[in-house]
């Protein structure tokens, strides 16, 4: 029990006395055996790291070169999955220790899927992070970058759980991959951050679920006016992209759900879903599919409103013609833009404020810095268009960059400034594999055309729904979660959705 | 789409224009079609219930008599399950819309079980609450009681999620069952409420899990001192009852867990569990079992300390001899006492401040009020001892009272003041079926003796662990959760525990 003694700073005298006597398990350590001198550690009420800005120094000749990955989204995780850990040590910095399987996130809000089924721990994506002494995951935010010194500054996430100031530390990189993703756009509309819920993280889905069930139950209480019932049970989704549409679909599925119909029979006629979009829903999809989607959603009771939101208040949104739409739940999914950190990075920018990269996803004019996913875009000089902020793009870029870095490593260019001579060959080319979206009620869209005007298969209906489910089931990363997603779907089918509010 | 029109208060002119044209699904309603008069509902910024103190009035001759149940713990849920809904309408008031299967709660903290697997929605326990027009569940707190008027006052739980003041309403009862449970005792020790986590609700388990994983990750960050690592990874459990012991067991299971050993190989030697108990652990168990438990826990690295906590600070507890024990996670399970509401109720009291009941679980000197579970105890005049605060007791009382109320109902005594003439026969007698506790590592205790000194089977080891699991698996209420618990156990066995921090 040395650890415990050292922990509570037992005096030399006491130490001799506290030899554990397992033989007699009832011999609890008597208090008298502990010294009660306050231990040094307690002299400072909230401990600081002994050395500010300690961290991981530059890698030495004997060690593997170090790839530092910022972010745990589709891009970063696919990259880490593909990196050859015989060549590189992997260090990941992110405020999230798991990847969210975003295409299935909407399903978790209404209990079709469990939250945990759509979250994949990093260590399961790249086991080296758990095993290799030189590989780490840090639950931290990147707060600064010094490309000349090959250095990133980080700050721990303390979650408010501890009376600790966040600790700063630095990490030297041989290669840096910026995969910080993007943040939801609010178009500077008042009150969005405050009153609307986004749908990008698991905790968003949890918040939506809690609110949905709270409102259901509040509206069931005696003395609630008709208007208030309608408001509480009015779910408004702003943004008609795949996320907005899929969430509306899931919601419209949830409402006629036997659990809800039964448990809230008193209020079921007040529950409604409105989808507000400034232009067309699913604008990236084939016209016939869009047409089909619109019909399906309308049929399942989703009200499609073309409008522009001007202002968001606690219980109503105001459209730009002054119409007031009361809501009980407001979900915001109007696309994404660069995060403040990305804006602040001392790097070349692409149109739209993204981190600028060349055909090989390198950030020009600095050494050993790459950027992938929603936070990056081609610099104008490449003449290439900015790619859409899709999981598909991020995943493809992560895969490409992993291979590129592995090649560079094999060619002996893994160290900082070691790839200057490296001959970059085939650049990154994005080939769109098509889009999918579910509409609820066992209906979905599958658009396999490579561009909006291109030719190719465009399916709608149950078949697509089946393809949608199978496709995602096979793309879920670990067998554990694949198993759980299947189980969740099965039990939802057999027992109905789970409406426990925990 | 009438609901939508009424919702946004469309003017007569506009109404004619907004006839939905499903035939042309692309015809979104143009904004101009909506009137922009502010709707009356919005004139008051945060709506109040139109009639304060509206609610459910006394039941009329045509209707079923109404049983109002306060609480959704073991007692209340078992009662509701047993009530004959052909005789009674059931109205349940609780801040929680589900029952927590407390014996398995400790397992959820470390990812052996999912949170949802141990939570059972009320509507699945008593389907009438979902179906019968006269039966309700209200997500509310009971705030007052008027036994003479047969009336309870309630207040909605708003969860801080809405800028709404909680709504007050009243419910008239024919029969009232007080099953409000108890609250954890802190013995007035400073800082417990603030810094320690209890283990009674699902959100407690979630908080413990988040904190455990946060500390694991924080301790892995460069620049953290040895002392700080030891502190962050020192889990202290206060209270050596079954809950405390089971949680310590689960924790000591979690630590050598391959996931943890691997992912946190850098810090695994700092992780430790200390169980602090003023007297003996598992005092209600057979000596040999206690002996066995002590040996097992010590073997799996749990430090047993006999001590009394004097003060709780943010990062250390101080024992009453002045010893300071730094901690990263502090779990408090030193038994329970009556809640402030129970204390405030205008009813006769039993020793220990519980609601006093007679042999038939009736509250004396008032009509039609019963009390069961941790919140109730026999009045002294009965000469019966206060029963321990166990799920077993609560469940037995719930079952007994359900039968009693059903009999009274059948005999036509269901209405308020209707049971005055009823002949109360066989009183409630508690027969202890024995105790179980798991120690982790596939070890458990099963004590089938009926009293501390009685004769009977007392088992320890794997067999008991197997009995423990089977017993609880069969006692889990719904097939859905039974299924999920089994699946969770299987996957934990195959894939290891899940350490995603969501």
From TrEMBL, chains A, B:
Q: What is its EC number?
A: 1.6.5.9
List keywords of the entry alphabetically.
FAD, Flavoprotein, Membrane, Mitochondrion, Mitochondrion inner membrane, NAD, NADP, Oxidoreductase, Peroxisome, Transit peptide, Ubiquinone
InterPro entries in the record, alphabetically?
A: FAD/NAD-bd_sf, FAD/NAD-binding_dom, NDH-2, NDH2-like_C
Domain External alternative NADH-ubiquinone oxidoreductase-like C-terminal, residue spans: 432-498
Q: Which topology term describes how it sits in the membrane?
A: Peripheral membrane protein
Spans annotated as Disordered: 38-64
What does UniProt give as GO cellular component? mitochondrial inner membrane; peroxisome
The principal location of this protein is mitochondrion
What cofactor requirement does the entry state? FAD
Protein task = Alternative NADH-ubiquinone oxidoreductase which catalyzes the oxidation of mitochondrial NADH does not translocate protons across the inner mitochondrial membrane.
Q: Mind telling me what this protein is named?
A: NADH:ubiquinone reductase (non-electrogenic)
Species name: Prunus yedoensis var. nudiflora
């Amino acid at each position: 029990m040395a650890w415990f003694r050292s922990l509570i700073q037992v005096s030399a005298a006491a130490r001799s006395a506290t030899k554990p006597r397992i033989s007699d398990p009832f011999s609890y350590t008597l208090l008298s055996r502990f010294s009660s001198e306050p231990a040094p550690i307690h002299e400072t009420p909230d401990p600081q790291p002994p050395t500010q800005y300690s961290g991981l120094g530059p890698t030495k000749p004997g060690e593997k070169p170090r790839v530092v990955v910022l972010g745990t989204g589709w891009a970063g995780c696919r990259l880490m999955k593909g990196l050859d850990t015989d060549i590189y040590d992997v260090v990941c910095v992110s405020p999230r220790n798991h990847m969210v399987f975003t295409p299935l996130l909407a399903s978790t809000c209404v209990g079709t899927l469990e939250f945990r089924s759509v979250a994949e721990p990093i260590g399961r994506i790249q086991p080296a992070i758990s095993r290799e002494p030189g590989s780490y995951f840090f639950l931290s935010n990147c707060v600064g970058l010094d490309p000349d010194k090959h250095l990133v500054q980080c700050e721990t996430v303390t979650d408010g759980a501890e009376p600790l100031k966040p600790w700063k530390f630095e990490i030297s990189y041989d290669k840096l991959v910026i995969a910080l993703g993007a943040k939801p756009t609010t178009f500077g509309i008042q009150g969005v951050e405050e009153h609307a819920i986004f749908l990008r993280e698991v905790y968003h889905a949890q918040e939506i679920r809690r609110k949905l069930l709270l409102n259901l139950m509040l509206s069931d209480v005696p003395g609630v006016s008709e208007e208030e019932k309608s408001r509480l049970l009015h779910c408004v989704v702003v943004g008609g992209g795949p996320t907005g549409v899929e969430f509306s679909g899931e919601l419209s599925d949830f409402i006629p759900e036997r659990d809800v119909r039964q448990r809230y029979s008193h209020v079921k006629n007040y529950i409604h879903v409105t989808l507000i979009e400034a232009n067309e829903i699913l604008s990236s999809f084939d016209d016939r599919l869009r047409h089909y989607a619109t019909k399906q959603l309308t049929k399942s009771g989703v009200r499609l409103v073309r409008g522009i939101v001007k202002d968001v208040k606690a219980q109503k949104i105001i459209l730009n013609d002054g119409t007031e739409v009361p809501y009980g739940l407001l979900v915001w999914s109007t696309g994404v833009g660069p995060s403040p950190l990305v804006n602040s990075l001392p790097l070349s920018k692409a149109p739209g404020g993204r981190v600028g990269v060349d055909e090989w996803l390198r950030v020009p004019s600095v050494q050993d810095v790459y950027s992938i996913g929603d936070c990056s875009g081609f610099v104008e000089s490449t003449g290439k268009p900015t790619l859409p902020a899709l999981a598909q793009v991020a995943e493809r870029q992560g895969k490409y960059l992993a291979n590129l870095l592995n090649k560079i490593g094999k060619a002996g260019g893994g160290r900082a400034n070691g790839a200057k001579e490296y001959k970059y060959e085939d650049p990154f080319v994005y080939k769109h594999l098509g889009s999918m979206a579910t509409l609820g009620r066992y209906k979905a869209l599958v658009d396999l055309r490579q561009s909006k005007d291109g030719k190719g298969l465009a399916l709608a209906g149950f078949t697509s729904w089946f393809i949608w489910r199978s496709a995602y089931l096979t793309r879920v990363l670990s067998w554990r979660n694949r198993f759980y997603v299947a189980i969740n779907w099965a039990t939802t089918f057999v027992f109905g959705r789970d409406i426990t509010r925990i």
